[in-house]
Amino acid sequence: MELKLILAKGEPKGKEIVVAKMPSTIGRDPECEVVIANVKVSRKHCTIEAEGDQAVIVDGGSGNGTFVNGQKVTRQPLKAGDKVVIGPLGFIVDIDGNRGGAPSEDILALAEDSPVGGEDLNEFLASLEKGSGGTDSDDDDVLQLTDDDLK
Q: For residues 23 and 51, what is the distance between their CA atoms, to the nearest angstrom?
């Protein structure tokens, strides 16, 4: 199974993050397989694990929670097209090239359910879309994924 997370809300929009090995930890810690440098993301926010022939996302006790299709989860099997919110960022799950026809615009609605704070979060997400592509070095709330971050 090839699993990708497609960045739908945040910059750079459309970035494909290949989850090359399982388990893969997502968080701010530089030791994570997927590093997201953002103050609303915990050091070890969540992990994607293999369970039989499917992928499962497991929250790592994060302060702001991990959301799948608008629901806060502690452990949730992932399907193609699922919408995952980690901190202020929204992803579409792609499994074996299938995104389940999920439109990226749905992520903003999911963000309103996040305990990070609907209106403030929506303003932040909008600023990412209008901004300089997430390259402001003085802004802690910017996704800083590069190919080097994706081990």
A: 10
pLDDT of residue 3: 95
Task: For 73, list phi and psi in degrees, rounded to 5.
Answer: -125, 155
pLDDT score, position 48: 98
**Residue written as token pair 């963000």:** 111
Number of H helices and E strands in the chain, helices first, is: 2, 11
* Per-residue model confidence (pLDDT) at position 150: 40
Q: Which residue do the tokens 């990226």 mark?
A: 104
SS3 45: coil
The residue whose two tokens read 């980690």 is 86
> What's the Cα-to-Cα distance from 81 to each of 98, 121, 136, 139, 144, rounded to whole Å?
7, 22, 30, 30, 24
Entry pTM: 0.69
Query: How many angstroms separate the CA atoms of 55 and 64, rounded?
Result: 22
Between CA 67 and CA 53 the distance in angstroms is 22
Cα→Cα distances 1→11, 75, 104, 148, Å: 26, 19, 22, 23
Q: Give the residues of the chain that fall short of pLDDT 50.
A: 104, 107-108, 110-143, 146-151
